[in-house]
Structure formats: structure tokens, C-alpha cells
Amino acid sequence: MTAVQPQPPVESTDALEVGTTATATVKGRTRIPWRFLGSRALFYLFTLWAAITINFFLPRFMKGDAVDQYLARNRNVTPEAADALRALLGIDTDKSLWQQYLDYWGLMFRGDLGVSLLHGLRPVTEVISQSLPWTVGLVGFATIVSFLIGTIGGAIIGWRRGSRSEVLIPITTFLSTIPYFWLGLLAIALFSVNLKWFPIGKAYGVGVSPEFTPEFIGQVIHHGTLPAVTIIIASLGGWMLGMRNMMLTVLDEDYITVAQAKGMPNSRVLWRYAARNAVLPQIQSFALSIGFIVGGTIVMEMVFSYPGVGKLLLDATNAKDYALMQGVFLVITLSVLVANILADIAYAFLDPRTRQTEA
Predict the structure, then answer these.
(1) For residues 138 and 310, is the Cβ–Cβ distance under 8 A?
(2) Cα 195 to the chain's mean position, in Å?
(3) Among candidates 69, 49, 46, which has minimal Cα distance to 317?
(4) Which 3-state string (H, E, C) describes 257-285?
(5) What is the Cα gyration radius of the chain?
(6) Which of 267, 276, 108, 139 is nearest to 203 (CA)?
(7) In the chain, which residue ranges form alpha helices assigned H by DSSP?
(8) Is the pLDDT of residue 294 over 80?
(9) Helices 322-350, 309-318: crossing angle, 10 deg rounding
(10) Does residue 128 contact residue 220 with C-beta atoms inside 8 Å?
(11) pLDDT digits (tens, 9 = 90+) for 150-209
(12) Which of 175, 316, 348, 351 is 20 to 30 A off residue 184, Cα-Cα?
């Protein structure tokens, strides 16, 4: 009788997990990609310097300045007072452009972004801090909700390709192609003018004082519901279509076929393997969307008369208010960079190949 040869022990490593981004940590705990993070940090530091430099020089290449706009509205200002205003705003013609640039960096490191002539010589930080919460609260909430609904919905639709749920793709895509100002005006005409469910605009009602009370919070939610819903409707199609297309690509990969052949539950294959890989391109787009939340939706703020950073930036640009323009641009730049840094970190942990190739 032929002796039975002993078989080598089967390794516990799951072959499905090799070479995919949807892997659990098989060879120990996940190591922090310090080299990858360091290289990205250097890149973003250079980007920050370039953005701040452009932020300083670009407004000064524009014709006229905030003082000229102020003098056009107030004829009784003396030349001495105009020179004093230019010195206060940091656009003193007696100083060279290089000296103004160095002074700008020094003031910025001290947290002094100057004063806004458009808002009665109030500090720029104070003006921005009053508008920023409205934009972040409304546009930020709407963007996050739209991303979650679109990504989860797109993953489910892609998984159930060929089902009736795919009818949502052309519907949401069509709604996304409608110009936002037209969509906002239609929403106001239907839900505010005809049905009277929501107020026409503003952040809260007339006569309500801004304070942390149930009445004020209710007013903010009531006034912000309609613009938030319109933002979600306008941006939902892009998230859903992008996730659905990526799911169709991922579902053709071999490791998905192997996972299904091994009898894994569909829910685990969907969320643990397919959706985790398909969501990677969505992360970068979401980071850009989060970063530009601070810039606000200017059209939305104009249509709904909503106070925010977007309208603040538009008014500052029209008035050539250098200090306010630079302050708003600085906040937008920092928000975009921070959002992209967080996206790179999340991308590196979700996709080990990124940190292995770029580090």
C-alpha cells in the first residue's frame, strides 16, 4: 500500500486579500506611512506659500483699490485722509511692493488680516467669523448629505445593475444639469410663494435676535431647509453616477468573482470589497467639495439672500477691498489644503498601493 504523503499545512492567509485594497491587515498592524505623509506635507507647504503669494499680488494688479471706490462714494474726503486710509489698509504707495509683501506675512503670522473698509474699518477676522458659520453650517451639511446619499445609492445601484433602481441615474443627472439659480427660483416659487411651506430667504426671521435659543434654532432650520435641499438635489447626480460607474468597473475584477464563488454574503462582498475599492476616486472629489464649502455657493446665497462667505467675497471683489478679499481667499485656501491632506491620509490607509508607490 502506498503511504500517504503528509500535506503541508495550509497557510491562514486568504488568497483573496492579496493585491487588493479591500484587505484586512494580514501581516500585522497597519504601519503609518511616514515617508508618504512627509512628502505630501512638503508639497502642501509649497502649495500654501504659492497660494498666499498669489493671494497678495493678484488684487494689487487690479485697476484701482478700495480707497478709490470709497472716494467715489464720499466726495468730502481729503487727500491726507485718503493717504492715511491706504497706509491703514496696507496699500501705501510710499512702500515698495516687496516691503508690503513682507509686512503682509508678518501681520498674517500674528493673526492680523487687516481691516475692511467696506465694513466700516472692522477687523477682517471679525467680518469673516460672522459669515463663516452660516456657509459651513448650510453648505457643509448639504454637501455631506449629498455625498453620503449619492455614494451609498450609487453603490447599491451598481451592485444591482440592470434593475429598476437604475432609473434614478437619469433622473438625478437631469436635475444636476438644471442651472442652480433656475432650480432655486423654481423652489421659491413653488414651496415659498404658492405653498408657503418655507420662507423666501434670509437666515432667520425678522425681529428674531441671533442667540442660542430654541426659537432661533428653529428659525435657522426653517429658513435653511429649502436652500439645503436644492443644493442636495443639484449635486446628487454627480455622486451617484460616479459611484455607480466605478462599481461597474470593480465588479468585473477577479477578486469579486472569487469572493462570490467562495460563498461570501452579498452584503460583505458589496461593502467590504466592491464599495471600498470603488469609493477611492470619490474621496478626492469629496475633499475638493469640502474645501470649497468655505467659499460658499454664491448663486445660492444670492437667490435665497443668505448671509455667507460667498456673498462676502463677491461684495469685497466689487468694492476692491484688498484686506477682505485676501482674508476670504486665505480661509478658502487653508480649507482646501486641509481637506486634501485629510483625503490623502484616508486614501493612503484605504489603498496601500498609494503609499507604497509614492513613498
Answers:
(1) no
(2) 33
(3) 69
(4) HHHHHCCCCHHHHHHHHHHHHHCHHHHHH
(5) 27
(6) 139
(7) 34-60, 66-73, 79-89, 97-109, 124-135, 141-159, 168-177, 180-187, 214-250, 254-261, 266-268, 275-278, 280-291, 298-303, 309-318, 322-350, 352-358
(8) no
(9) 140
(10) no
(11) 999 988 988 888 788 888 888 888 888 888 888 888 888 998 888 888 888 777 777 777
(12) 316
Dig out the grid coordinates for 231 from the structure: 443644493
Q: Which of 274, 18, 320, 34 is nearest to 161 (CA)?
A: 274
State the pLDDT confidence band at 37, using cuts at 50, 70 and 90.
Answer: low
Task: Give the bridge partners for 123, in sequence order.
Answer: 115
Cell 488680516 maps to which residue?
A: 113
Annotation: CATH topology of 128-358: MetI-like fold (1.10.3720)
How many residues comprise the chain?
Answer: 359
For residue 332, what is its C-alpha cell? 478658502
Best CA proximity match to 18, nearest among 352, 354, 355, 356 = 352
Q: Residues 301, 202: contact at Cβ < 8 Å?
A: no
Closest to 346 in 3D by CA, of 4, 12, 40: 40
**Cell numbers that stand for 118 in this block:** 467696506
